[in-house]
Design goal:
Elements (H helix, E strand, L loop, with lengths): L4 H10 L7 H8 L3 H12 L3 H18 L4 H7 L5 H12 L3 H7 L24 H11 L8 E5 L2 H10 L6 E4 L16 H11 L3 H9 L3 H5 L4 E7 L2 H16 L5 E7 L7 E5 L4 H10 L10 H13 L5 H8 L5 H11 L7 H11 L1
Parallel strand pairs: 1-2, 1-3, 3-4
Antiparallel strand pairs: 4-5
Helix pairs in contact: 2-3, 4-6, 5-6, 10-11, 13-14, 13-15
Amino acid sequence: MNEYIQPMIDWIEENIKNKFSLEDLANYMGYSPYYCSFKFHQVTGISIRRYILFRRVYLSTKDLANNRKIIDIAFEYNYSSQEAYSRAFKTVFGVSPREFQLNQMPVQSFAKLTIHQSEDGSRMNNSRETEVEQLKNNNMELFDRDVLNILNGQLMYDEFSNKKLMGNSDYVPFNEAMCVNATTEFIFDEVFIQTRASGHNVTVENYSNMVIKPLNNLFRKNYNYIVLWFGEDMFCQMNLLTILAYLEQSHYKGKVFFNSFREDEFKVSQTELTLGSYYSVYEEVLINHLKPTTKLMPVMYQAIELFLEMQTENNAVITYISKNKHLPTSELLKRLFEVFPTIGYGDTQYMKLIDKTK
């Protein structure tokens, strides 16, 4: 049945703006409505109706960005009213369509699902230099010596620093995975280091060499600008939240820019951020695992929703692993990367869940 899931997805995409009927999909596929619904959820990790919700509101963000009337967008995507569309939009993104239209905030992409991608996966393409050049044309001041670029991970840091993609500015990597394991009230102090090292099952020395020492420029030098390069998936957004909370905790006074991008295409959305509430969100979400009481940009709101779901015992990933634990580990890992791109876990995080579940 797995080979029929992609035709299901293709049919849904062709009819995404029409009134959805599970019976029509079932007739097209030649299976019962129950069987189509059950197998779609088993293979993709998401219900058909939830997939349609995410795709519709995500696709509608492009219409909003082009300043189309909200009521016209609502009817085009087959909502019964502007109010119904607005409720659905806010459920996913945490802001209303009007707020999004006025502020043009970054959102977490929800691309069309593709089952069984090619072996080379869907990582960043080679358009980084072109995209960075466009940023340079728009904001030349971010390429000078009083700028620090904080990059999500060593691989990104190596390329940016080796190629000097951001001119004469400085570069540091944040080599962490804040979406797993406990954290502490004070960020990057001794207790934080001990707690995080223990969670990752490494020595304090190894943790310090991997995470803390590469951030020395952040701790020791003063910058007028800090540019944060983090993807839109949950993994990256929890790292971003931690850095923003640290900037508040350390009373940073300069300007902060957030460069958001998808892992499978390096299209950058740049937003200037205002510090002031991220530490309280860090405490609520990463320490206490509670929903934030502060309004956030949609991409972080979506990531937090995923993070909190991942703290539950029978979250979508655990359920998916349980239903597919008969698969070889290598195949199961491949499918997890395909099915849950918005989570952003790596091999290490998924292997822990597979070992726990199997």
